[in-house]
Amino acid sequence: MTDPRLEVRDLTEFARLEQLTGLFRLTWGAREALVPLDLLRALSDGGGMVLGAYAGPELVAGAVGFRSADDPAVLHSHLVGVHPAWHGRGVGRTVKHHQRDWCLRRGITRMSWTFDPLQRRNAVFNIDRLGAYGHAYLVDHYGPIDDALNAGVPTDRVLLRWDLDRARPSVPGTAEPILDVDENGAPQRIGDGDGDGAVRLRIPAEFPARHALAWRVALRETMAPRLAAGYRWTGMTRTGWCVLTPPNGTEA
């Protein structure tokens, strides 16, 4: 599951940590460091996860994570960034599976992280390819962020869980559609989903910026209350349909 062209290693040297801060700024189009250099140093010194993926001498991806304060068997993956020139080349998958191996060697059996549910490509990767699942909807979780990916919109996130030593959750064969994309790229309610069965929502591959807030509101109204009630986001298709499984349909 790893790319033989890449070497993923723990970063401890100051120069490599400094290089990682630059990679994260480039990836997110941020003016300031996403993780301050002194904090990266402290995480590295304290046994946290600070990884770099190299293609020869070039740093092409990185990851930062730390153990949960409540459960030492859980690691929260705070950031994973891939150099824009290396998108679509399997680097993200290599890094995630190295994270998995890193955790299991240390007795960590679960990983969590947050992601923007409107980033459909990331949803497909996280849920369909890796087998993680969403279990909480976090409204404007990070507050205003002034970077190229988040400026001007609430930072709603879904909290994911990836069980590293268990099979992925099952996905129901049928699910009632309740949210779709209209011809203008705006959200369109197409069902109530008032029963207790699985539901599905379509997330657009892209949409006009004028609809960004409408999509936030649509997911807050359809996805957020169900995840709060015990549903789990267990399925994601490449055509944009996400499947929410009710509490009686999953062990998670």
For the structure shown, list the relevant keywords.
252 residues; alpha+beta; Aminopeptidase; 12 strands; 29% strand; globular
Query: What class, by secondary structure content?
Result: alpha+beta
User: Any guess at the CATH architecture of the largest domain?
Assistant: 3-Layer(aba) Sandwich
Regions with pLDDT < 50 over 5+ consecutive residues? Answer: none
> Cα distance, first to last residue?
25 Å
- What fold name stands as the CATH topology of the largest domain? Aminopeptidase
Determine the number of helices (DSSP H or I, runs of at least 4 residues).
6
- Biggest beta sheet attributes: 7 strands, mixed
Helical coverage, percent range: 25-40%
Shape: globular
In total, the number of domains comes to: 2
CATH class membership of the largest domain: Alpha Beta
Strand line-up across the major sheet: 1-2-3-4-5-7-6
Task: Give the topology, please.
Layout: E1 7-10, H1 14-28, H2 37-45, E2 49-55, E3 58-67, E4 74-82, H3 91-105, E5 110-115, H4 120-129, E6 133-138, E7 157-163, E8 176-181, E9 187-189, E10 199-202, H5 212-222, H6 224-228, E11 232-236, E12 241-245
Parallel strand pairs: 4-5, 8-10
Antiparallel strand pairs: 1-2, 2-3, 3-4, 5-7, 6-7, 8-9, 10-12, 11-12
